[in-house]
Design brief:
388 residues, alpha/beta, nine-stranded mixed β-sheet, binds benzoic acid
């Protein structure tokens, strides 16, 4: 081989060897978005997706230099379809990371599936305590809350206000049960007593018989967990039954988040606890709300914040591995270490992967859940059963 042919062969070998690298640098990161697009939680899913996309768009459409491709699945908030749906993303679509979902029952199935596959999972709403409890795993983090957190904060506030006898009412699945449990724990520690638990199956909205029972019990306060379309109907029915005037209605903030326009006068003045308040007057929250409203012609709510923060967590993880999503251990380790500069205020993740965050007391005024006070500072979920 003469010198020219040797040089040519070397050049070809070099080009071939570097081709996969170049291709890899160009490849998009596949984000599986498993959210409800139909049913009582549809608006919540849209807000989460919009929040996530907003953060990616603010970074020029890329995270750590990698373009993002979305693969979407409508999970319908249906736990019976959850395992099939998540396995489509993992096995058929080969997504790099999964973001989802809203409903605790669906999210529990997702957590079990990614514990097997090792796919990184960011939960942008569903509060099922077990996800950062017995099912906690290195590849699972939440950008939202555990069901226990807002329930517990409500119990603290209700006891502080001097209420003694409470009734709880909720959808009978993990989110409702665990929110009511958190409420009961704090309320009874503060000297109150839950005299009755009332529930109905998700997503049932036939509240009448239960409202009659509340009127008969005459409690000092009612704690409720409902969200989305169901929360709209519950708050209106509570008012129409004449209860708003006689028994203060308290709840985790999902009762009035993203729902105030549809609830109208029935929601005005309701006090709830949550890790976000629309009127938090910080440069970070004001800029976020402005940008969200300009982009989507809609006000941001807690679900939009959680979607936005899910993208921030993924962005931080990807930055740490310089965009190399194949380095799963380093990626998820970095995601867990991040301090998220959230519109809700800065927060970190616990060892179990759940936000340690301030819980706010809010009051519904016009179209906003206005900040009133910090109900509990830097509240960490107890992560019961997590071995990490
Ligand atoms: C849940 O199922 O975990 C949930 C759904 C809507 C709002 C809050 C929690």
């Amino acid at each position: 081989m003469n010198i020219t042919r040797i040089a040519l062969a070397a050049a070809i070998a070099l080009a071939t060897a570097s081709a996969p690298l170049a291709a890899q640098a160009q490849a998009k990161i596949k984000v599986g978005l498993m959210l409800p697009a139909t049913g009582t939680f549809a608006a919540l899913g849209t807000a989460i997706e919009n929040g996530f996309r907003l953060y990616v768009d603010e970074q020029g459409g890329k995270l750590a230099g990698r373009e993002i491709e979305f693969v979407r699945v409508d999970d319908e908030s249906d736990p019976s379809k959850a395992t099939d749906n998540v396995n489509k993303l993992i096995k058929r679509d080969n997504v790099d990371v999964i973001v989802g979902t809203v409903h605790s029952g669906v999210a529990l199935a997702m957590a079990r599936a990614v514990r097997e596959s090792g796919t990184p999972l960011i939960v942008p709403n569903a509060g099922a305590d077990a996800i950062t409890g017995p099912l906690c795993a290195a590849n699972i983090v939440r950008s939202s809350f555990s069901n226990w957190q807002p329930g517990f904060a409500s119990g603290v506030m209700a006891a502080q206000k001097g209420y003694k006898r409470a009734v709880t009412i909720y959808w009978n699945y993990a989110a409702g049960q665990e929110s009511a449990k958190g409420f009961t724990e704090a309320f009874e520690k503060g000297g109150g007593k839950v005299i009755k638990d009332l529930s109905l199956p998700f997503p049932n909205v036939e509240f009448q018989a239960l409202l009659t029972e509340i009127a008969a019990q005459k409690p000092d306060v009612v704690f409720a967990f409902f969200a989305g379309g169901g929360a709209v109907k519950f708050v209106k029915d509570y008012d129409a039954a004449g209860l708003k005037k006689s028994v203060p209605l308290f709840g985790s903030g999902f009762l009035t988040d993203g729902t105030l326009e549809a609830q109208g006068a029935s929601a005005q003045g309701l006090q709830t606890t949550l890790h976000y308040a629309d009127s938090l007057d910080t440069p970070r929250n004001n800029a976020f709300r402005k940008s969200f409203a300009l982009t989507y012609k809609q006000n941001a709510d807690v679900y939009a914040v959680q979607g936005y923060d899910a993208a921030q967590i993924l962005g931080a993880g990807l930055a740490a591995v310089k965009g190399d999503i194949t380095k799963r251990d380093a990626l998820t380790a970095a995601m867990r270490k991040v301090t998220v500069d959230s519109p809700r205020g800065k927060f970190t993740l616990s060892a179990a992967g759940n936000p340690v965050q301030d819980m706010y007391l809010r009051e519904a005024k016009g179209l906003n859940n206005e900040y009133r006070a910090v109900a509990v500072k830097a509240l960490a979920d107890p992560a019961r059963g997590c071995k990490l």
